[in-house]
Amino acid sequence: MSKALPILEPSGDGPDPLEAEGWERRFIAVGARLTESVALYEQLGFVVRLEPPTDNDLREECGDCHAALQLYRIVYTRRPA
User: Residues 53-69: pLDDT tens digits?
Assistant: First the structure.
């Protein structure tokens, strides 16, 4: 049985500059799941940063899905300094 692959994933085009600043990339979300996850991470004491995905985060076979990129956000977290 094959496993379905996600539409959005890290591009792997080198190190993520935000990770060099101490941010940890968690996942990509949209809608209620995004709102819930931000609230949960903040309740756990994390600082949350949301970034829009880029074309590099979109799987090759989904090249025509660029409109969806405007809806999704990449969730990054880090502990307060």
Answer: 877 776 666 666 777 77
Alpha carbon distances (Å) from 78 to 35, 37, 50, 59:
17, 14, 12, 26
Flag whether the pTM goes above 0.70. yes
Q: Radius of gyration of the chain from Cα atoms?
A: 14
| Edge-to-edge strand list for the sheet holding 73-78 | 24-29, 73-78, 47-51
The string of DSSP letters for 39-50 reads HHHHHTT-EEEE
Is residue 81's pLDDT more than 60? yes
Distance CA 77, CA 59 (A): 23
